[in-house]
C-alpha cells in the first residue's frame, strides 16, 4: 500500500505561515531540501499547499511527522496524502484550443505521457476536465 501512496501531500490551514517559513518547516520535518527533493505549490485561494516529493519517501510517515511536529501544531496546519485521481482540470484555455490538441498534449511524454480517455470542455469557464485511462498516469 505504501508503494501505491501518492508522492504528494496537501497541507491545509497555511495562512499563518509565509512561503519561506513553510519551506523551512517542511525541510525540518522531512530532512529534505526544497526544489532538490520536493516542490511546493501554494494555492492561497484554498488556503492550502501541495508538497510533491521528487525523492521517494513514505508520504504517510511524513503526514504523521507533520501532525506531531511542534511548529506545525502551533501553525494549526493539517496534512494529508493527496488522493489519486483520474481527472484534472485545465484552466485559462484559449478559445481556439481543440480536444485533439489537449489529448495529444497530455499524452505527450514531456507532459506526463498518460493515455487520455476523455476531454470535456467548459467554454464559459475557458476550462476542460481531462480524464486519464489510469490514475497512476502511465498507461
Automatic annotation (TrEMBL):
Domain of life of the organism in this record?
Eukaryota
InterPro entries hit by this protein = Nucleotide-bd_a/b_plait_sf, RRM_PARP14_2
- Which positions fall inside the PARP14 second RRM domain? 5-83
**Lineage of the organism:** Eukaryota, Metazoa, Chordata, Craniata, Vertebrata
Taxonomic source organism: Catharus fuscescens
Q: Which Pfam families does the protein's record reference?
A: RRM_PARP14_2 (PF23245), RRM_PARP14_3 (PF23085)
What protein is this chain from?
A: PAR14 polymerase
